[in-house]
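Amino acids appear as letters; backbone shape is given numerically. Here is one record.
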Amino acid sequence: MITQEKTSTSGNSIVGKMMVLEGMILLVPLIVLPFYPAEAGLSVIFLIPACLSVVAGLFVCRLGKQIRNSSRLVVFSWFYGILLAAVPFLMYGTVTPVQALFESVSGFTTTGLSVLDVEKLPHIFLFYRAFLQYVGGLGFIMTMLLFVQEKDSAVLYQAEGHPDRLMPGIGKTAKVIGTMYGFFLFIGSVCYTIFGMPFFDSVVHTMCALSTGGFSNRMDSIGYYDSLPIECITVILMLIGTTNFSLLLLLFKGRVKDFFKASEIRFLGGLVFITIPILAGFLVAGGRPIGEGLRLSIFNAFSALSTTGYATCSYSNWPETALAVMILLMVIGGGLGSTAGGIKLARVCILMKNLVRNIRKKMVPDRTVLLTYYHRGTEKELLTDEQIEEASTYAGCYLFIYIFGTVLLTFFSGCTLVQGAFEFASSLGTVGLSIGVTNPDTSSICLFIEIMGMIMGRLEIFVVFKAFCRK
C-alpha cells in the first residue's frame, strides 16, 4: 500500500540512473558470446541502444529537472525500459515494431506470451528474453536498489508493488531478495542439468520459472522434454517465484511453522487441494486417461495459479469446463509482493474471510461480535475495514478491466468468448498461457489490447492511474 506519493529526492538523478541501469541491462546478453562466437555479429544490436541509453542517462543526471511523483517515476522507468528493450528485437529485423514492443512488454512484465519462432532464434536472443523476465520479476526499482540507494527509496520500493520490507533498511531488503534469487537460480539450473536438460536451457528456464515468466527455448515449452522430474523441478521453482518475498525469508531462516501459519499459504494449499482434482476430473471426462489427466492438471494448474505460463500440452482440445478452471486460477494469481500477477492470493483470501464473516453474521444474534484474523506468518492481526476496502476495490477494478479487455479481444480477433477470456486472463494476469489466439499472425490491434493488459497487470493498475493524475 502506498502511503506517500511524492519523493523529495532529486528526481532527475533517479531518472538518469534508471536510464543508465536499463542501458546496462542490454549489455548482459553479451556474456553468452564466448560460448557461441558465431553470433558475435549480433553484438551491435545490443551495444548501440545500450550505449545511447547510458550516455542519455548520464546527461539527464546533470540536467537539473525533477520528477517528484513516485508513481510517475516508476511508470516512466517501466515504459522507458520497455521501449528500449524492444530495439534489439526490431534491429534483428524479423518482426514488426508492434511485435517487437509486444515481446519486450511480455518479457519485462513476466508474461511469457510470444509472437516469435523461438526454435529459430539465436542463443543470445533466447538468453536476452529470459533475462528480461528475470529483471522484470524483481522490478527496475528493486534492481537499482541492489546497487544504488536513494533518499526516498522506500517510497519507490512500495510504488513498484513491493508491500513488505524484509529488513530494517530498503538497501538490505533488496540485497536479501537478490541473494535469494541468485541462490535459487544456481540450484534450479543445477537440478535441471542433472535431469537431462541442456545447461543453456537450464539457466533460461530457471530464470523464467523464478520470475513466473514462462519464456521457453522450445515451441512446446516444458512439454518438449516430456520428463516428470523436469516438471517437478519446474513446479517447485514456480511455487518459489509465486511466494511472497517475506514468506520466502521465513523459509531461509528455517521458520517452517511460521511459514505454514500464513493465511496466504494456507489459502494457496486449499485452493490447490480443491481445483486440481476438479481439473483432473474434467480432463478425464474429456477422454484423457486418469494418470495423464492428473499429471496435466497438477503441472498446468500450478502454472496458471503462479502466473508462470509454462505448459506441457496444447489447450486447443481441452474441454471448456477445464479451461474455465484455468481462467479462474489465472485471475486469482499468485502471492502479493511476489513476481506473480493476478488479483493476488492475499486479496482473494481477505475477501473470502470477509464473505464468511458476513455470512456468519446472518446466523448469530445481532449483538454478537465476530473477529476475523489474517496471519502474515510472523504476526497475527485483526482484519481491518481498510484491508477489506483495498482488496475489494482492486478486485473490482481488475475484474472490470478483465471483462472489458475480453470483449475487445474477442471482437477484434474473431475468436470465441471462451478463447478471448482465456487469452486476456493470461495477458492481464501476466501468465503467458495461450490457447492459440496470440501468434505471429495476430493483428496489431489485438497485440495492443494484450500489451495494455500486461502493463496494467504488472504495475497493479493504480500505479498507472496515479502516474497520470494531475498533481
